[in-house]
Design brief:
The protein is α/β, with parallel strands linked by helices. It has 22 helices and 15 strands. The strands form 5 sheets. It has a 5-stranded mixed beta sheet, with helices on one face. Helix 20 (about 480-495) packs across helix 22. It is elongated, with a radius of gyration of 32 Å. About 35% of the residues are buried. This is Glutamate--tRNA ligase, mitochondrial. Its EC number is 6.1.1.17.
């Protein structure tokens, strides 16, 4: 099995070669380093597992975090295990108001029910204090009183462990001088043991050894709050977490976590580091700082939770080909719960292409239209927007009309948000002075006279029942292509040359309204 060696924050060491560059370059290289020897061995657990989703409430949940939550949820459900929600909220300076509630609402919206939690790390200070003392008593951690200036200066060359050998008396004196405040550091080992990642195989990550100092991670900050590294390990152990599925960006931190497990004498969980999500356009990592990756923003754009869950599941996981082909990779959450397996995770960064998300959304929107209960929910969602835009607040038949349009024409929608713009002509006659570019093109040049001739021949009393016979007759009588006849009638009744089937449009509009619009279109075109 191939071994990946990462040195420090910016050095990748592979087979004796040293490459300088950002850590992300090392992470991308990781995807190419896993080498299978012989027959592939399954890494999918066969007994119930305990997983967790542990976000920091520092902003709206984004699809990268949702994917992490989903994979942990699916692994727990597939093995009939436990899924825990834990809030890693100890960095109080980065908390964002409303972020905690956003996490709860997003998970509920997507149907990811947790079995335990939410557990807040900020409410577990006594627990962390207990285990800090364990490491201090073992001599595997030490109090540090160095100034910020000294620590800043040591970042390049590493920390010189100035405070490691302070006597108990010196520690007590410095605690009095600093009002009891200090940080607690972990005495990092000189060498980190290689470890096995269930996705990438054997990984060997070492700190840089071209520096005089050490990289002893901080476990407890001066405000008494634990760092991510320490609280993460303590909580995973106490909560019985057996499998940790998290983003590949946490791979360089894993040796520190495993060293802490060893220091306590605890058995670590199995780790699965899933690939980074990158933007198709920029090839940059998706971030919660960019609103286009926010689950809340996608929800506001009309994306359905079923579609988003389906989309996120496939960002680094591929079902067996025969299963995927059966329904074009469209899976409900319940189906994913029975299909998900660590054996089908993919390596290498994943490009996020929202066109696939829109494909799924269109699929699940149609499913909702076909479901009587969900159809009514869609109607209730759409009616206020239609009523406001077209001043139809007191229209008693509006619900029935919206429902009728969804059932007959809704298959063309990608999101419910498109309804008002796509089907506005059902509620207000077209403005023939503001036609679409395609409609204007149809009326240009000799096309104007053709359209006028078609509309005059179609005449009054046009209806859904007779429209196809009338179109066939006019096509033969005028010697005009049937396509032009269809487009002319559609222009008159809907203001565009394409859209829902013409008989469905006329059926919803009614013969009287359709005939009135044809007459109005004739009047307008004659003035051109």
């Amino acid at each position: 099995m191939s071994t990946l060696v990462l040195g420090g924050a910016r050095t990748l060491v592979l087979r004796g070669a040293i490459c300088r560059g950002p850590l992300v370059a090392a992470q991308r290289t990781l995807a190419t380093l896993h080498h299978k020897q012989g027959r592939k061995v399954s890494v999918q657990p066969t007994t119930p597992v305990v997983t967790r989703f542990a976000p920091s409430p520092t902003g709206s949940l984004h699809i990268g975090s949702l994917r992490t939550a989903l994979y942990n949820y699916l692994l727990a459900r597939r093995t009939h295990g436990k899924f825990i929600l834990r809030l890693e909220d100890t960095d109080r300076t980065r908390l964002v108001p409303g972020a905690e509630e956003n996490i709860y609402e997003t998970l509920q919206w997507c149907g990811l029910a947790f079995d335990e939690g939410p557990v807040k790390q900020s409410e577990r200070m006594a627990v962390y204090a207990k285990y800090i003392q364990v490491l201090l008593d073992k001599g595997l951690a030490y109090r540090c009183f160095c100034s910020k200036e000294k620590l800043t200066a040591s970042r390049l060359d590493g920390y010189d462990r100035h405070c490691l050998h302070l006597s108990p008396e010196e520690i007590a004196q410095k605690l009095r001088e600093n009002d009891g405040q200090c940080i607690v550091r972990f005495k990092a080992p000189d060498h980190y043991a290689p470890f096995t990642d269930l996705l990438h195989g054997e990984v060997n990550i070492q700190e840089r050894r071209d520096r005089a100092g050490h990289d002893d991670p901080v476990l407890l900050k001066s405000d008494g709050m634990p760092t991510y590294h320490f609280a993460n390990v303590v909580d995973d152990h106490l909560m019985g977490v057996t499998h940790v599925v998290r983003g590949e960006e946490w791979l360089p931190s894993t040796p520190k976590h495993l060293a802490l497990y060893a220091a306590f004498g605890w058995a670590p969980p199995q780790y699965v580091h899933i690939p980074l999500l990158t933007s198709v356009g920029t090839d940059k990592k998706l971030s919660k700082r960019r609103n286009d990756a926010s689950v809340l923003a996608l929800q506001q754009q009309g994306i359905l939770p079923e579609a988003l869950v389906n989309f996120c599941a496939l960002l680094g996981w591929a079902p067996p080909r025969d299963v995927a082909q059966q329904n074009h990779e469209c899976f409900s959450l319940k189906e994913l719960e029975t299909l998900f397996s660590l054996d089908h995770l993919t390596r290498g960064n994943v490009k996020v292409d929202n066109s696939k998300l829109h494909f799924f959304n269109k699929h699940f929107l149609q499913k909702r239209i076909e479901n009587p209960k969900q159809l009514e929910e869609l109607v209730e969602q759409i009616v206020p927007d239609v009523a406001a835009k077209f001043a139809l607040v007191d229209c008693p038949s509006l619900h029935d009309k919206v429902r009728h349009i969804l059932q007959d024409c809704g298959h063309g929608l990608t999101t419910a948000n498109e309804f008002t713009a796509a089907f506005g002509y059902f509620f207000a006659a077209p403005d023939y002075a503001q036609l679409s570019p395609d409609a204007q093109k149809l009326l240009s040049g000799a096309g104007r006279d053709q359209v006028l001739a078609v509309l005059k021949e179609l005449g009054p009393d046009i209806s859904a029942a007779t429209v196809h016979d009338r179109i066939n007759a006019v096509t033969e009588q005028l010697g005009i292509k049937k396509r032009i006849v269809f487009q002319s009638l559609r222009l008159a009744v809907a203001g565009d040359v394409s859209g829902a089937k013409i008989d469905l449009v006329l059926g919803i509009l009614g013969s009287s309204e359709a005939s009135r619009r044809v007459a109005a279109a004739i009047t307008h075109i004659q003035r051109i």
